[in-house]
Write a structure and sequence with these properties.
2 domains, Gyrase A, domain 2, 16% strand, single chain
Length: 457
């Protein structure tokens, strides 16, 4: 009964390996019914565009800057996805936004995709005292640098000697509110009945609707300016408190301009303005060379490990080497199925997990040798070897798995890629060592080879 169960397990392993192998390489048996799912490669392997944007946080309170940058990242990711860019990498680093688009080599197109996203703001009128103060400071600055002249380093040092010099760069008439494009739910083109001109209707989310109500309530009888990309589009007078989170933008648009603006706002209005400060293209040739060299190194390492297992542990080592091949096929099939984006760091995680899988086999085989030297049968030695080595395998793999989890949660970019492939590799490697290798050994233990102790010790 026990052997019959083991035969069923081995049959299931071979069926699973066959299906996984054809998923990884469907051209091998020319079975075209298997889906040809391509591997997804990161920027370092596939090539693409690397862009760095500087965010302007001058008008954002310090305690709100982290939250604002996170909102900016979310909007950019949504904007990129609309244009069909697969697996974009968008990261926040202080006041900079780092964007990597794998498989995109048209830098101008990439910049257009991101740069077209408008920055929507609602600004309320300043008090007359504030306006006069700002205008006075701006006049002092003009006297230092001259009318219409650019600011030199020497001039900037003199400007900083003015009290509250930062106010020289503020809008003297309007100040920003918390209501920006990040609260926008949707926008659509409408037409003013009186003038038959296109206008843009805005609908804010629940939080934005509350902010809009508070802003209009405190600005009744005053203008509320609407800015897009720091350009004033309109400044209607607030007649009453507006509830429901609805607003309109009118600015003598053509129909096409209104539709384009509405479409871009729906794609994602930026919560803060950004400026491109760096751009770089990573060629696919360089990525292919890196991938080929990494795979070659991994293959040589795998072959060396297999030879070591066979020479030192004989038949169990041969079975473990065969199980390692199955392990790699299963792992690559899972990567294809769940759409893992492979980077050089991810490939390193796979290679590292192979070493962990071998480590589990070595613990088992070493324990088996001790049992055989004590005069126990091959069958009993296999059972005791797996049973007594399990605690060490469990502790070692669990510790590494916890480290991979911490790296994935706290890390960014390539670190997370390494952690993910390592963690997944550990789980599959445990299945390989405990289930696949053990099933093969039980199968051969019942054959003539099972009576040759020199093959097992």
């Amino acid at each position: 009964m026990y052997r019959k169960k083991n035969y069923l397990i081995i049959t299931a392993i071979f069926i699973l390996t066959f299906l996984a192998g054809n998923l990884v390489y469907p051209q091998f048996l020319n079975i075209y019914r298997f889906p040809n799912i391509p591997f997804k490669f990161g920027l370092d392997l596939q090539g693409g565009v690397h862009l760095v944007y500087q965010a302007n946080l001058a008008e954002i309170e310090p305690e709100e800057r982290t939250k604002t940058m996170e909102g900016l990242r979310d909007v950019i990711e949504r904007r990129i996805d609309i244009f069909g860019v697969v697996e974009p990498r968008v990261e926040v680093k202080d006041e900079r936004l780092i964007i990597e688009l794998a498989g995109v080599f048209d830098v101008a197109e990439a910049i257009r995709i991101i740069g077209e996203t408008p920055f929507l703001q609602f600004k309320e009128q300043r008090s007359s005292e504030e306006t006069e103060k700002i205008l006075a400071i701006q006049q002092m600055v003009r006297e230092i640098i001259g009318e219409g002249q650019e600011i030199t380093p020497e001039g900037f040092q003199k400007i900083q000697e003015i009290e509250n010099w930062e106010m020289a760069f503020w809008n003297p008439h309007f100040k920003s509110t918390e209501l920006t494009g990040k609260f926008l739910k949707r926008s659509e083109v409408d037409f003013a009945q009186a003038l038959a001109e296109p206008i843009i209707s805005l609908q804010f989310n629940e939080e934005g609707a509350q902010l809009f109500e508070e802003i209009t309530n405190r600005n009744i009888g005053k203008p509320l300016a609407i800015y897009i990309d720091n350009i004033e589009i309109s400044a209607p007078i607030v007649q009453e408190k507006i509830t429901g989170g609805r607003a309109q933008i009118s600015g003598r648009f053509t129909v096409e301009e209104a539709r384009e603006l509405s479409r871009n706002l729906n794609a994602g209005a930026l919560p803060i303005p950004i400026e491109l400060i760096s751009q770089q293209t990573v060629g696919p040739v360089l990525g292919r060379i890196s991938l080929d060299e990494s795979l070659r190194a991994g293959l040589y390492g795998l072959l060396a490990v297999m030879i070591f297992l066979i020479l030192i542990y004989r038949l169990p080592g041969l079975l473990a080497a065969f199980a390692l091949g199955i392990y790699l096929i299963l792992l690559l099939a899972i990567f294809k199925l769940i759409g893992v984006t492979l980077t050089l760091a991810g490939v390193a995680g796979i290679i590292f997990s192979v070493g962990i899988a071998v480590d589990a086999n070595i613990l088992i085989f070493s324990r088996m040798r001790e049992e055989i030297k004590e005069g126990k049968s091959i069958s009993r030695s296999i059972e005791e070897g797996f049973k007594r080595a399990w605690s060490s395998i469990y502790d070692g793999n669990l510790t590494t798995l916890l480290i991979a989890l911490i790296l994935f949660v706290l890390g960014v970019g390539f670190v997370r890629g390494f952690a993910f492939t390592l963690g997944l590799g550990i789980l599959i490697s445990m299945f390989s060592a405990i289930v696949i290798t053990k099933s093969f050994m039980i199968f051969f233990e019942g054959t003539k080879l099972g009576r040759l102790k020199w093959l097992w010790s």
